């Protein structure tokens, strides 16, 4: 085993020792005993796919999640992951982007092309920003960087699952809400499908979609940069919303250099100038 792997394993062992609830039965935490983390579908423990080629890391992460009332399913690469998907879809997928001979970003792109399962990516050194940026652009919901604590990973898994449940609950409570028309364009929130006035689909990144829905929720109202940051909050330490707005303008505007939809309000922020009609 490499020195780096040994170091990671030692940290993971320390995390397990520090965060396991000694008062819990069979090492299961008080949180797990309360049943507060279950699958949205059938009230069973959340099914978490872990794609990781380091067997020691794979087992330690899996054991920790099992101790916290989550069912871990292991895969060391693409083939095992595909077999797992063939059996049943997970509630969430944890994907290491560094999988030896396989490209984790290609795998992420493949998953996202056919599934909207929540994905947390594991990336390398904290100073290496590019993997995180590209991973989030390709549709990952969150990330952790090595070396990471098991407690942090668990917290991020719970947060992503909570956000997904909130979205599903809102959809059930208000099934009619979710589609908008504006200037001949249409956006279906339930499928995340944007079509232009000619009916041609326009693909949006996660950041672009979040920004567009924030604008459509408050049309013809000036929105501050702080408001947009909160409304589209994913990773404010990485994303520059002005860059995302430029990209969105290129996809929506006839002439992005003189925008008519997303206008800049100097000293305030931005305003979505067109009227929006929910339907």
What's the end-to-end separation, in Å? 58 Å
Shape: elongated
Question: Which regions have little confidence, pLDDT < 50, spanning 5+ residues?
Answer: 1-42, 234-239
Radius of gyration: 21 Å
- Proportion of strand residues: 15-25%
H/E element sequence: HHEHEHEEEHEHEHEEEEHEHHEEE
Q: Average pLDDT, to the nearest integer? A: 77
Number of strands: 15
- Helix proportion of residues, in percent? 40-55%
Which structural class fits the helix and strand makeup?
A: alpha/beta
Major beta-sheet overview: 5 strands, parallel
- Number of contiguous helices: 10
Q: Which strand order does the major sheet show?
A: 2-1-3-6-7
Which descriptors apply to this entry?
279 residues, five-stranded parallel beta sheet, 15 strands, elongated, five-stranded antiparallel beta sheet, single chain, alpha/beta
Provide a compact summary of the structure.
With 279 residues, the protein is an alpha/beta fold. The chain is built from ten helices and 15 strands. It has helices at residues 3-19, 30-33, 55-67, 78-87, 104-114, 130-137, 150-173, 206-217, 225-231, 241-252, and strands at 46-51, 70-75, 92-96, 98-99, 102-103, 119-123, 142-145, 179-182, 185-188, 193-195, 201-202, 223-224, 262-265, 269-272, 277-278.
Task: Give a description of the structure.
The chain is of the alpha/beta class. Helices cover 42% and strands 20% of the residues. The protein contains ten helices and 15 strands. The strands form four sheets. A five-stranded parallel β-sheet has the order 2-1-3-6-7, with helices on both faces. Helix 1 (3-19) runs parallel beside helix 3 and helix 8 crosses helix 10.
């Amino acid at each position: 085993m490499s020195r780096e792997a040994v170091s990671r394993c030692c940290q993971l062992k320390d995390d397990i020792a520090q965060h396991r609830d000694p008062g819990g039965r069979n090492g299961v935490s008080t949180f797990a005993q309360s049943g507060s983390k279950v699958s949205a579908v059938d009230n069973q423990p959340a099914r978490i796919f872990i794609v990781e080629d380091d067997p020691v890391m794979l087992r330690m992460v899996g054991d920790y999640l099992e101790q916290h009332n989550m069912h871990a399913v292991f895969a060391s690469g693409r083939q095992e992951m595909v077999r797992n998907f063939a059996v049943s879809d997970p509630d969430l997928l944890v994907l290491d982007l560094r999988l030896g001979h396989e490209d984790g970003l290609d795998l992420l792109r493949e998953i996202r092309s056919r599934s909207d399962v929540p994905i947390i990516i594991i990336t390398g050194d904290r100073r290496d920003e590019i993997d995180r940026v590209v991973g989030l652009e390709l549709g990952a919901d969150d990330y952790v960087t090595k070396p990471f604590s098991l407690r942090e990973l668990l917290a991020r898994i719970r947060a992503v699952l909570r956000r997904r449940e909130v979205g599903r609950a809102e959809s059930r409570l208000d099934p009619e809400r979710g589609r908008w028309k504006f200037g001949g364009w249409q956006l279906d929130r339930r499928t995340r499908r944007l079509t232009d006035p000619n009916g041609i689909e326009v693909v949006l990144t996660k950041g672009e979609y979040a920004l567009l829905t924030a604008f459509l929720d408050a049309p013809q109202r000036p929105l501050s940069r702080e408001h947009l940051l909160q409304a589209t909050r994913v990773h404010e330490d990485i994303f520059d919303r002005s860059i995302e707005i430029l990209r969105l303008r290129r996809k929506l505007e006839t002439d992005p250099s003189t925008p008519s939809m997303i206008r800049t309000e100097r000293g305030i922020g931005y305003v979505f100038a067109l009227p929006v009609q929910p339907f």
